[in-house]
Amino acid sequence: MEFKEKSILKNWVAPKDELLPDFIIGGAMKSGTSSLHQILDSHPDIFIPDRELHFFNMDCLIQHEGFHHYNESKDVWTAQTMHSDPDSMWNWYQSKFQGKEGLVKGEDSTTYLASAIAAERIA
Fold first, then answer.
1. Would you tell me how many other CB atoms lie within 10 Å of the CB of residue 42?
2. Which of 10, 93, 95, 121 has its CB 3.0 to 4.6 Å from that of 56, i.e. a possible disulfide?
């Protein structure tokens, strides 16, 4: 079982450490995540994207149905996944921190705390 789990997570190793956040807030709805975001964002040495990225659990249909698209003509659902295109996924995520290498970088998402997969992927 352990070997299978490691192979599933292999694409979750970032290609560039310098473009990873220094901290991640795994908040919950109505728990003060937005207030904490605003306080951190007001500090001149901290960068945090304006919007929640949901990167570490964006493929979870239950939490992010808007990230999945139905192609009626082909009768298929599509979604960006780390399994099908890890380079594109990491490029998108790390582009959110590009040019902020000299700052303390962070991100927050109110869905990470409730996610069954986000913590392991973040680790």
1. 8
2. 121
